[in-house]
Amino acid sequence: MNQFNRRKFLITAGMAASSSIFLKGCLGNPPESISTSTTAIAKPIKLTPETTPETTQVKLGFTPIFESAPLIIAKEKGFFAKYGMTDAEVSKQANWGSARDNVEIGSAGGGIDGGQWQMPMPYLISEGLITKNGIKVPMYVLAMLNTQGNGIAIAKSQMGKNISLDMSKAKDYIQGLQKEGKKFRAAYTFPKVNQDFWIRYWLAAGGIDPDKDISLLTVPAAQTVANMKTGTMEGFSTGDPWPGRLIKDDIGFVAALTAQIWPSHPEEYLGMRADWVDKNPKATKAILKAVMDAQQWCDKPENRKELAQIVAKASYFNVPAATLEPMFMGKYVMGDGQPDIDDFNMAVRYWKTDRGSVSYPYKSLDLWFLTESVRWGFLPKTYLETSKNLIDKVNRSDLWKEAAKEAAIPATDIPTGDSRGVEKFFDGKVFDPENPKAYLDSLAIKKV
Ligand code: CA
Q1: Which of 44, 136, 268, 326 could form a Cys-Cys staple with 67, CB 3.0–4.6 A?
Q2: What distance in angstroms lies between residue 248's CA and the mean position of ligand 1's atoms?
Q3: Neighbours of 353 (CB within 10 A)
């Protein structure tokens, strides 16, 4: 029995044992549906006129990666229902392009009202930069869903070439490929957002120009492993569990975790159509409270086994829980001679880290995404001057704070300002939100 099958066997055996105990306790009663649930489902709270949502319905999109866990858990553990959103639906999106198209039409047209986004997608949609015919669909950024839990995976064919966190050691090799006309190909799941930024930052820190030395392409998250197998690309950047799947399938290794590139970095966000939020402010806060409850639940190490079992389901990730669980616990097999990682602080996190709140949508982090967009020529340089106004329009940290107070989140967990302060990267670079230009000036490789 290999490690994977053994683990699967142990988990299955454990589940069977707890199910039989459950059945024994219910002898004489009609059998209830047997679930993998080991913690209680949240009970509905008593709603007041101030907290009764304008609607019980909402449709939120998600992508089957660790980032979506708070939305899935808010549904599965009863947190949406707890706050009156009894008909909240979470809807699996085929890829990021579909999520964008679906939010553009809204749930009334068969799409979605909002959901999980890479950054700065809500900004690009609000500005009409990635929508059909350039239509502006105003959106609000409401909360950050997670930090960390993403990685850069490399095909087995690239082993022994020093491809790791510090790419300066692989610079000659990568540039050599380019000179031979065999450019290294790296994939992201959607252009000009998180995954693209992580690849670019990582390469550029090692002196490799992502626009000249390699070629970049788009592959949907769920298809990355299949495409790596068939040799479509040599590297990809996406959310867990896809980089880890590569190790299981023995087709590659993980070169770097985003937790190494930028500890407690901003990752994906809850964003919704502005018209939906403006029409349903109490329902929006109910959704926020449910997501906050779910984030706290997800962040408890003792809940992560159950979390893995819930998101493993076919309707969610459709990946065995045994594959997911080690990554949820911060256990990463890196491969190609790098030491393995076993540290919960390196895992995906949902509520709090040593940098403070994960959930709170710091405006200073939105500013980094817009600044990085200027760095790579995705947005015109004028955005350096206009970003502040745009962020004030799109980022609704005010709603987050109101919801947090209603949910009786302790004051120590509610940030008082919109800046998380100075950000530090693995290569020693610094982003001071008070001076984004100084950050851009400090970078050797850029398009601005
Ligand atoms: Ca991601």
Answers
A1: 268
A2: 20
A3: 16
Give me ligand 1 centre to Cα 24, in Å: 42
Please tell me the distance between residue 142's alpha carbon and the centre of ligand 1 in angstroms: 17
The dihedral built from the CA positions of residue 365, 193, 326 and 34, taken in this order, carries a sign that is positive
Q: What is the whole-number distance in angstroms between the Cα of residue 80 and the centre of ligand 1? A: 23
Q: What is the DSSP string of 195-217?
A: HHHHHHHHHHHTT--TTTTEEEE
What are the structural domains of the chain? 150-264+319-346 (3.40.190.10)
So what's the pLDDT on residue 297?
Answer: 98
Rounded to the nearest angstrom, the distance between the alpha carbon of 9 and the centre of ligand 1 is 30
Burial class (CB in 10 A: 0-12, 13-18, 19+), 384: middle
Instruction: Give residue 10's pLDDT.
Output: 37
Q: Are 234 and 187 a contacting pair, CB within 8 Å?
A: no
Distance 233 CA to ligand 1 centre (A): 19
> Which pLDDT score, from 0 to 100, does residue 151 have?
93
Residue 180 CA to ligand 1 center (angstroms) comes to 32
CA of residue 336 to ligand 1 center, whole Å: 23
Distance 264 CA to ligand 1 centre (A): 13
- Give the pLDDT score at 241: 87
Distance 238 CA to ligand 1 centre (A): 6
* Residues 368, 440 contacting (CB under 8 angstroms): no
Q: 385: burial class by Cβ within 10 Å (0-12, 13-18, 19+)?
A: exposed
CA 150 / ligand 1 centre spacing (Å): 6
Cis amide bond preceding 120, omega within 30? yes
pLDDT, position 21: 35
What pLDDT does residue 245 have?
Answer: 80
Cα–Cα distances in Å, from 423 out to 151, 264, 431?
A: 19, 10, 5
Cα separation of 245 and 251, whole Å?
9
Handedness of CA 235, 236, 237, 241 (dihedral sign): negative
Which pLDDT belongs to residue 239? 85
Task: Give 10-residue mean pLDDT values along the chain (448 residues).
Answer: 39 36 36 60 97 98 96 98 98 96 96 98 98 96 98 94 97 98 95 97 98 94 86 91 82 94 98 98 98 98 98 95 95 90 97 97 98 98 96 98 98 97 98 98 97
